[in-house]
User: Fold this.
Amino acid sequence: MVRRRWYHYIPLCLAIAMICAPHPSLLVIFVNYYYRARNSPLYGALHLSVVYTLTFLAFCSLIVVLVRDPGPVSGDKARGEEASGLADGEDESFLEALLAPPEGEEAYGPGKWCKKCDAPKPERAHHCGTCGRCVLRMDHHCMWLGHRCIGHRTHASFVHFLFCITILAAYVAILCSRVVYWSFTHPLDIDETTPIHAISLALYGIVIGMVIGSFLGYHVYLVTTNQTTLESLSPFWLLRHMPPLPDSADARRLSNPPVEHELSFEQRMLVRDAHRHIRLYDVGWRKNWAQVFGWSRPWGWVHRLVFGGSCTGDGRTFPRHPRADEMLSRLAAGLVSADKDR
Assistant:
């Protein structure tokens, strides 16, 4: 694992500062607008409690993302080292080496062995070059959260963090917009500084809400279809899950399974088009959300509202779409058919 330097945490400190920065101005608005101008301390306290509750929930999920390992593959690495290495002091004869079982990618299959970690790579796991390790069900590497990977055990908390920040930004923007409107219609009933704070926070909330909200919308789509960011953006990852190609004497031989650089333009377009329709792990939106956020009971999502939860299962095997094998077989036949015309 790559050791993080102090400068890797600068984006994280900046993100925390952006979350905390509006609160002094919010306190000014609550005091001057709700307490002094409107004489409504109860409404001010209610809005203040909502803001700080959302802030608390955002920090809860942020702490989970920072503290929890996104998805360790250490157990598989130990088994890989045990299978590939010999104990200290043991000598291997020529006959033992000749009769030894296959190791590495030859034993586990293409795409199921990490050459950098020299260990088995479970299903949906990816190697992060920045962290120098494999991560179970890796979604992406996030520089804003302490240069950590978002994976099997932290994806739900990451989505929860995005949701809390988006709702908080929208709430602050709406709240401050109402203060701005009231200030312009009652200019003599409020001081000069409160509208400036309100305008600044309204614009700040709109910008943050649009930026983080669009990112949240994308991850809601990923959770609903049971995809990761890497799986959504990389259509050629389907090749590692393809069944054996149909035999054809007329077709140009491809690797089995095919490799991206071997494909022609027509075959690449075929894979890209299939990627829009093949959702290997989509088992229905209800089960997808339950799987990502880790609940199995009807009301199991309630306590997940605090920190987001984590994915169910061991992160190494996942249920598949009932027609996934059929669609992959159709794609394999299409690649062979397109290969005949090359």
Q: What stands out?
A: The first strand starts at residue 113 and ends at 114. Residues 76-84, 86-90 have pLDDT under 50 and may be disordered.
